[in-house]
Amino acid sequence: MKKTRIGKVVSDKCDKTIVVEVERIVKHPLYKKYIRRRKKFMAHDEKNEAKVGDIVEIVETRPLSKRKRWFLKRIIKREVGEV
User: Fold this and answer.
1) What does the alpha-carbon distance between residue 15 and residue 59 come to, in Å, rounded to a whole number?
2) What is the rounded distance in angstroms from the CA atom of residue 46 to the CA atom of residue 74?
3) Strand, coil or helix: 5
4) Torsion angles phi and psi, residue 21, rounded to 5
5) Keywords of this protein's UniProt record, alphabetized (predicted)?
6) Which three-class secondary structure string do you get for 19-83?
7) pLDDT value of residue 82
8) What b-and-e string marks burial along 19-31, b requiring 16 or more CB atoms within 10 Å of the CB?
9) Separation CA 26–CA 24 (nearest Å)
10) Is the separation of the CB atoms in 55 and 5 below 8 Å?
């Protein structure tokens, strides 16, 4: 089973590539406080359809470049932007 992540698109400046920020909540081992941890993944977007602010699902794949190992599976929610 391939790994999947849900996150927010923070950059779409590269051709056929998006940067997705995935947020998770972890419990601090000593202080027992919940902390937000964020990580950025570069993902392949063949049709350049995802835009900044969209909530997307990405799936792990073979290495496509030095940092790109994920591809866009679907757009869950589109960001309503300026016209």
Assistant:
1) 19
2) 12
3) strand
4) -100, 120
5) Ribonucleoprotein, Ribosomal protein, RNA-binding, rRNA-binding
6) EEEEEEEEECCCCCCEEEEEEEEEEECCCCCCCCCCEEEEEECCCCCCCEEEEEEEEEECCCCCC
7) 59
8) bbeeeeeeeeeee
9) 7
10) no
H/E element, 7: strand 4-11
Domains, in order of start, for the chain: 4-77 (2.40.50.140)
Output the CA angle 55-59-65, nearest 5 degrees.
Answer: 105
Structure tokens at 27: 């419990």
Total Cβ atoms within 10 A of residue 52: 14
Q: What is the pLDDT of residues 25-44, one digit of tens each?
A: 999 999 999 999 999 999 99
pLDDT of residue 17 exceeding 70, the answer is yes
Give residue 69's pLDDT band: very low, low, confident or very high (50, 70, 90). Answer: very high
Q: Find where tokens 């927010």 sit.
A: 8
